[in-house]
Amino acid sequence: DIQMTQSPSSLSASIGDRVTITCQASQDISNYLNWYQQKPGKAPKLLIYDASNLETGVPSRFSGSGSGTDFTFTISSLQPEDIATYYCQQYDNLPPYTFGQGTKLEIK
Amino acid sequence: EVQLVESGGGLVQPGGSLRLSCSASGFTFSGYGMNWVRQAPGKGLEWVSYITSTSTIYYADSVKGRFTISRDNAKNSLYLQMNSLRDEDTAVYYCARRRGKAPNLRFDYWGQGTLVTVSS
Questions:
Q1: What is the pLDDT of residues B5-47, one digit of tens each?
Q2: What is the DSSP track for chain B?
């Protein structure tokens, strides 16, 4: 099975900061990677699909890039409502559809 | 408006069984693959099972042989029959819709989750 290594596991940043989270796959997954946001007590929400496509209705301060084994998720200017845990998910070919361990984002 | 509503969670003893349901509305249920994803308390997301629109089925190794996913398109419903439950199955269980043309996919809508607690 493909393993996803997400880092950092937690991150503290100030409002307005640029925030970057990385995800590394254990083998080449092309662009088969999604990013989700989960706020406490809520279901995950899709933000980015196919590594770099912004889901409809998601603010443009969120972006994703990468292919192969290395992927990056960026918030260009952190807002208070972005406090959440972020997960990457790979979906190469067939299941299992593995998630990264998550990155908990807090305000400094 | 797309809605997914899970039900059926609760407290069950180790070795027991539980059946979760996910009621779908706001879209043509029969045309979409559906997933179950779980989250243990304070932990990350774990994909559990996937059923395609044509009822091809996949399971995570951790639940294979114990859990059974199924769907009833006439009732717009997804199910997860969970048998031989273990302490480590304690989690919030989410149903999630698969969107995207193969090989691409994404989970674009999620239910609110239902809590399963396995404890004696």
A1: 999 999 999 999 999 999 999 999 999 999 999 999 999 999 9
A2: --EEEEE--EEE-TT--EEEEEEEESS-GGGS-EEEEEE-TTS-EEEEEEE-TT--EEE-TTTTTTEEEEEEGGGTEEEEEE-S--GGG-EEEEEEEEESSTT--EEEEE---EEEEE--
Please report residues of B whose CB lies closer than 8 A to that of A36.
45, 107
Q: Does B42 touch chain A (CB under 8 A)?
A: no
Give the whole-angstrom CA distance, residue B3 versus residue B97. Answer: 10
List of chain B residues whose C-beta atoms are within 8 Å of the C-beta of residue A42: 112
**Both structure tokens of B66:** 């114990």
Q: Summarize pLDDT for A18-70 with one digit per residue, the tens.
A: 999 999 999 999 999 999 999 999 999 999 999 999 999 999 999 999 999 99
| Contact assignment for B44 to A99 by CB distance below 8 Å | yes
B40–chain A Cβ distance below 8 A for any pair:
no
